[in-house]
Amino acid sequence: MTEQRTTEIETPSGNSHTTTTIITDEPRSGGAGKWIALLGLLVVAALAFVVFTQMSDAQIARDNAVAEAADSVGDAANQVGDAAQNVGEAAQDAIDSATN
Predict the structure, then answer these.
(1) For the residues 65-81, what does the mean pLDDT come to?
(2) Measured distance CA(22)–CA(1) in Å, rounded
(3) What are phi and psi of 7, to 5 degrees?
(4) Mean per-residue pLDDT for 46-75?
(5) What letters, b where the CB count within 10 A reaches 16 and e where it falls short, cover 27-54?
(6) For site-directed labelling of 7, which of 17, 27, 82, 87 has its Cα 20 to 30 A away?
(7) Whether this model's pTM surpasses 0.85
(8) What is the pLDDT of the chain when averaged over all its residues?
(9) What's the DSSP call for residue 10?
(10) What is the pLDDT of residues 8-51, one digit of tens each?
(11) d(CA 77, CA 83)
(12) What residues pair up with 23 in beta bridges, in sequence order?
């Protein structure tokens, strides 16, 4: 509720002075709205944390899969190298046997 009070003062010499005062009585809030907003903000922060954690776990899993694939390729390359060396040694043995 808003109330306006106007006070008019007249001096003995005939001068007048007017003062206007506005009084506003707003209902006091218990602050529940602030607590609800704070709780909502905390819920949003918790959800964001969970989402970013899940995304981080997915990135780690992807990185691990790529690393394992690279290790497998490296192992396959080593096996091919060993096989090529065995073929070379067998060819050298065949040449040595044919010349002796």
Answers:
(1) 91
(2) 11
(3) -115, 125
(4) 88
(5) eeeeeeeeeeeeeeeeeeeeeeeeeeee
(6) 27
(7) no
(8) 86
(9) E
(10) 888 888 888 888 888 887 777 677 888 898 999 999 999 999 88
(11) 10
(12) 3
Of 55, 75, 52, the closest CA to residue 63 belongs to 55
**Looking at this protein, which amino acid is placed at residue 92?**
Q
Cα–Cα distance, 23 to 3 (Å, whole number)? 5
Residue 94, both tokens: 């065949």
Neighbours of 18 (CB within 10 A): 9
- State how far the Cα of 67 lies from the Cα of 73, in Å rounded to an integer: 10
SS3 for 14? coil
Residue showing tokens 């602030």:
34
- In this structure, are residues 15 and 35 in contact, taking their beta carbons and an 8 Å threshold? no
Give the ranges where the chain is alpha helix by DSSP (H). Answer: 32-99
pLDDT band at 1 (very low <50, low <70, confident <90, very high): low
Mean pLDDT, rounded, for 45-63: 86
